[in-house]
Amino acid sequence: MALLGRGPVLHRRLAPCAHGFRYPAFFYLLPMRSLRRSPEPLLARNRRAWVSFRDADHGEGGDDALAWAEALLQREGVQADGEIWLQCFPRVAGHAFKPVSFWFCERADHSLAAVLAEVHNTFGERHVYLLQGEGLASGAEVAARKVFHVSPFAQVEGRYRFRFHFAPRGATPRCLARIELENAAGQTLLTTSLSGQLQPLSAPALRQAALAQPLHALAVVTRIHWQALRLWAKRVPWFSKPDLPPHPISRSLPP
Predict the structure, then answer these.
(1) Which end of the chain is more exposed for a tag (fewer CB within 10 A), N or C?
(2) pTM over cut 0.85
């Protein structure tokens, strides 16, 4: 069953100066393999609608995002024979910007074999962090070296620390993704998170979310540039964009 989540995006910068914000958001959590077998009529997939999902917004821009994810998992030797869930922002009013989307790749027993953190920057570039480890769904920390340019106010160095609470089934379905960035010296520079209660995708739920944030995607981009202006005013150092990493996928660090 396709799910809709609503909750806050939190961002808190700790160094070199304090800076934070909190914005409302809504997102899809899509069981991609189930949708392959039985499409969801309420999900406007690859067609025009005020709120929609387009496969080409993910992976290498093809018309089957799940096929891309499955091929990646196969190349990397990840056995994920259960559901593959995609948590992502929808297209709204024809516009999309998805700073990070998460592919939760399950085994047959519903445990997580891996999480793909698909990161996009405002330059139209993409990188995937392949995260693995025990307890991924229940808050276990997994780290990955930062190799991809996201913000001009942070160098491409140090590492990310990821934590997830992934519970799409049960009486109170919910998901949380939390990311901390630390520099090469081990100092935490910023924390960010996206969380929300989940409900079945329905016409009333979708309508309520769209009415609350009718220009969601444009608002995301506008807020990114507004926060960048505030950081510039605070004289936070600016770093030029480096070259892309040599490989579009990087793995998590050993525990």
Answers:
(1) C
(2) yes
